[in-house]
Design goal:
The complex is a heterotrimer of chains A (about 270), B (about 260) and C (about 350).
Chain A (H helix, E strand, L loop, with lengths): L1 H23 L2 H25 L11 H21 L1 H4 L1 H6 L3 H5 L5 H6 L8 H17 L7 H28 L7 H15 L8 H10 L7 H8 L15 H26 L2
Chain B lengths: L1 H16 L2 H28 L8 H18 L6 H8 L1 H6 L5 H32 L7 H27 L7 H15 L11 H9 L1 H14 L4 H36 L2
Chain C lengths: L3 E13 L4 H10 L3 E14 L4 E5 L6 H9 L6 E6 L8 H5 L2 E5 L11 H11 L4 H15 L14 H13 L5 E5 L7 H18 L2 E5 L3 H7 L2 E6 L2 E7 H8 L2 E8 L1 H6 L17 E7 L2 E7 L5 H11 L2 E7 L3 H11 L1 H5 L7
Helix pairs in contact in C: 5-6, 9-12
Classes of the chains: A mainly alpha (about 270), B mainly alpha (about 260), C alpha/beta (about 350).
Chain lengths: ~270, ~260, ~350
């Protein structure tokens, strides 16, 4: 089981490395791309700073706290954007009729799809996330860091990324039925990112439930941030739930993976 | 000749009608983001009922009207002209017996009408249904708004044209275009309503063309711009329409000359 | 153990009628009107190791559907199949490492990368040990003459070069079975000959079983001792090229070269060409260019040697050759006149 995973990872690495090499041939282009994306995503953060000009707080949250939440969400999303690029571009694969070839290879379909693209430009958003994180730290001088709190950072960011990627996979699975719905996936991913960048409690109860229990994006973003800031969670959840993020993300990912398998099965019974 | 441009606009409008599902998806996106910003506004106004002369209802109207207007005025992700430059089609377009800029202008005007009816209106209505902030009843406001909106559309068309036409000279035009769109959105109040910007920043943003793109018409609609300020806002819009249009037209003639010399 | 074993294979598609417009789209969801399309019906196939087979049939006959089922891409609605002893559907990945597939229209090479990069990448994808991979690569480079464009990005290659690249890619992992879907389509005569040479070589030298879908009858005649004709989802014919020509070839032609003096003495027609008269039943003259005369005769009307004897008894023959009907012609007739369909008791929708 483990050895199979290692073999898959090695294959993933080889496929990605080839693309990286091809992209790095145009270093200037890559740099411009990354810087542009960094600027765009940074500009998207500026409103948070502007809001706190005329307004003293956002439902009790101060500017530094919101910035921290924003940073964690950004880094999660950026990671997902980077590694999930192949899944994101799956509608193109279907459109070009290339999925048949995927099935003709002695490698799992999902692995091939995931490794089909790797866009360096997405590093721009991860960088933005880091910068905002540093800014948040400077705006929260009173924040005390314990070893547990330090641990929760990578745990939640990776969990959040996993949920985002799982959403992308759901969107890709839809492509087996129709390619007209890619915009809907974007609402959940880009929209979800925007939404989760602000404290969950400002939203309608229904939306809160949705992003906690249906599409658990909040577990990788809002919940751990509350843990870091010592804030209480809605619905009486104890803040230790932050450590449950990986489990929640994994469960969601497994469900997403199952629907993908169903989608591939459907493709095989109806043809392209 | 005018008849020709009218037909171009009508064809462009008709062509948009085909993309029903894409429009529906886009509409849902607008509504979703409108909702997010609404909740943020409501939460912000909790601690301070009035800011920069705005109350919660004003802010919600601002956000939703802006979401409604984005596609009408800016049509997100518009690279049509750039694509014709890339493919070389533009060469034959430039040698057509009609004015190059007015041709594209008419096309985009037609599309704007489509987006006004099928994106703008439904977006604002959806916002009204979800958050119950209504619309101003003063017909005079509507009249002035109806004057300001076309000006905004004209600015938007000229601006889109501008960052597309640079594809003639710059290879990385796509990245530039994406960036130009983001800048426009930011400085027109799409991310944060302009009235909430810090004072020093507002002195800059007032003079940028993006102000006339969305902020000015929206503020007119809200009844926040009256008297001198109103005339000033409208005047700025007119100024930018003229400046941008002239600028773009001269770029077109430079490009056309280059095409004749180099042959595309 | 046979390479391919298929029994009673069938595939039925359920196609929903598409109604136009927004209202139509909604009606499609509520009340879908589905009709069934039988793409493949009751197809049985038996292929031994090392065979080279041509799969022939008009467009929409069910050839690609059959190949898709045999490779595990498509799920059959009924029937039994085993390829290399494996179930293509349930053991798809295992089978994939033992077969190679080349699509004439679509390349499996990475578009933006140089050819060599694609070939290297495939090593990891197919888990080929390094030594075997480099040996195979060296051999294929020589056989297909790849060196001149090995470093060129695939998108810059000509069709013939790309096809050679795809062939190399499909064979790097030593597959036992090779499927080719229209491999010579769009290629010039020289390129086609080269590909055919290559296929014959790998079949002879490495014993690779080859299943080849094609519209080009020259491909079939040069390469395939055995041919399958598929139409309307059914296997209509499974046999040799020679046999099909004999059964459906209709008429053969005999070209007789007469003695010139004798030819001049024969009665002439309006065009001034000699005419043979009182020919036996079922034989008629189709063309003449003194001293040559073309005679067409039905296979069932008279035996070839009898006709030669008849001619020889009456004329001095300098030379006699036979001309077979073009296989293109034969196949065309079979499609158009539904000859095999009739034989198989199927009425074709007009």
């Amino acid at each position: 089981m483990i050895s199979k995973l290692l073999v898959d990872l090695r294959l993933y690495w080889h496929l990605i490395a080839m693309q990286l090499r091809a992209q790095m041939q145009y270093k200037m282009s890559v740099l411009i791309d990354v810087v542009t994306y960094l600027s765009v995503t940074s500009l998207e953060f500026v409103p948070v700073l502007i809001y706190f000009g005329p307004f003293p707080s956002l439902l009790g949250w101060k500017v530094g706290e919101v910035a921290l939440l924003y940073a964690i969400t950004s880094m999660s999303f950026g990671l997902a954007e980077l590694f999930g690029a192949g899944i994101d571009a799956f509608d193109e694969t279907i459109r070009r009729g290339e999925f048949d070839r995927v099935l003709l290879r002695p490698v799992g379909a999902l692995l091939q799809v995931v490794s089909s693209e790797f866009r360096l430009r997405r590093l721009g958003r991860i960088t933005e996330g880091l910068l905002v994180f540093i800014l948040a730290l400077s705006l929260l001088p009173g924040l005390e860091w314990t070893p547990l709190k330090l641990a929760i950072l990578p745990i939640s960011i990776i969990s959040g990324a996993l949920v985002f990627i799982a959403i992308l996979l759901l969107g890709a699975t839809l492509c087996f039925w129709t390619i007209e719905t890619t915009e809907l996936t974007n609402i959940l991913t880009y929209g979800g990112r925007e939404m989760l960048s602000y404290p969950l409690t400002i939203y309608h109860q229904g939306l809160q439930c949705f992003f906690l229990f249906v599409i658990p994006l909040a577990f990788g973003t809002y919940v751990p941030t509350c843990y870091l800031l010592g804030r209480t969670l809605p619905f009486g959840l104890s803040s230790e739930w932050a450590f449950g993020a990986p489990l929640v993300a994994l469960t969601f990912a497994i469900i997403s993976g199952a629907t993908w398998r169903f989608g591939v099965h459907h493709y095989q019974s109806t043809g392209s | 000749m005018l008849r020709f441009y009218f037909e171009v606009a009508r064809t462009a409008y008709r062509r948009q009608l085909i993309y029903r599902w894409a429009n529906l998806a886009g509409l849902l996106t607008n509504i979703f983001f409108g909702a997010i910003f609404s909740y943020v506004m409501i939460a912000l106004f909790h601690t301070r009922p009035v800011a920069a002369g705005f109350n919660v209802r004003d802010a919600l109207r601002y956000i939703w009207l802006l979401q409604a207007m984005v596609m009408v005025v800016l049509t997100f992700g518009w690279y049509d002209l750039m694509l014709t430059i890339r493919s070389g089609e533009v060469v034959s377009d430039l040698s057509k017996p009609c004015d190059f800029y007015w041709y594209w202008f008419s096309r985009e005007a037609g599309r704007s009408i489509y987006y006004l009816l099928f994106r703008g209106l439904p977006t604002y209505l959806a916002g009204m249904l979800l958050f119950g902030f209504g619309a101003p009843g003063d017909w005079k406001l509507w009249l002035v708004y109806a004057t300001s909106l076309p000006l905004a559309v004209m600015i938007g068309i000229a601006y889109r044209f501008l960052f597309n036409i640079v594809a003639f000279w710059i290879l990385e035009a796509r990245a530039v275009a994406g960036f130009a769109t983001t800048i426009a959105l930011f400085f027109s109040g799409s991310y944060v309503p302009l009235p909430f910007f810090p004072e020093w920043l507002q002195t800059i943003t007032t003079w940028l063309p993006f102000n006339g793109l969305m902020n000015v018409p929206v503020q007119i609609f809200l009844g926040k711009l009256t008297g001198e300020a109103l005339l000033f806002g409208l005047g700025l819009q007119v100024l930018w329409v003229i400046l941008l249009t002239l600028g773009v037209r001269s770029l077109v003639s430079i490009a056309a000359r280059r095409v004749i010399v180099q042959g595309g | 153990m046979a390479m391919i074993e298929a029994e009673g294979l069938s595939k039925t598609f359920r196609v929903a009628r598409r109604r136009p417009g927004l209202l139509g789209g909604l009606r499609n969801i509520i009340d879908p009107q589905i009709r069934t399309v039988q793409a493949v019906q009751d197809l049985s196939l038996h292929v031994e190791r090392g065979e080279m087979i041509g799969l022939v049939g008009p467009n929409g006959a069910g050839k690609s559907t059959t190949i898709k089922m045999l490779t595990g891409i498509l799920m059959p609605t009924g029937g039994y199949m085993r390829v290399a002893g494996l179930n293509p559907l349930h053991q798809r990945r295992e089978l994939a490492s033992r077969i190679g597939v080349v699509f004439g229209q679509r390349s499996q090479l990475w578009w933006d990368l140089p050819l060599i990069d694609s070939l290297q990448l495939l090593r990891y994808l197919y888990r080929v040990p390094e030594k075997r991979h480099s040996d195979n690569l060296a051999r294929l480079r020589k056989m297909l003459d790849l060196d001149e464009f090995l470093d060129t990005p695939v998108r810059q290659l000509s069709l013939g070069q790309r096809m050679r690249g795809d062939l190399a890619a499909a064979l790097l992992h030593d597959p036992e079975l090779l499927y080719l879907d229209e491999p010579t389509i769009g290629l010039d005569v020289v390129a086609k000959a080269r590909i055919r040479e290559f296929l014959l070589a790998i079949n002879a030298e490495q014993g690779v079983t080859v299943l080849l879908t094609t519209h080009d009858m020259d491909d079939v005649e040069t390469l395939c001792p055995r041919m399958l004709i598929i139409d309307h989802g059914r296997k209509l014919y499974d046999g040799t090229v020679v046999e099909i020509r004999e059964r459906f070839g209709g008429e053969r032609k005999l070209i007789a070269v007469l003695d010139p003096v004798e030819a001049a003495a024969l009665p002439h027609d309006a065009k001034g060409q000699p005419v043979l008269s009182e020919l036996p039943g079922g034989v008629h003259q189709v063309q003449a260019e003194a001293p040559r005369i073309w005679l067409a005769f039905g296979r069932n009307s008279i035996a070839a040697h009898e006709l030669v004897a008849w001619l020889g008894a009456r004329h001095h023959l300098r030379d006699v050759t036979f001309q077979e009907p073009e296989i293109e012609e034969v196949i065309r007739r079979i499609y158009e006149e539904g000859l095999l369909l009739r034989e198989n008791g199927i009425s074709a929708p007009v």
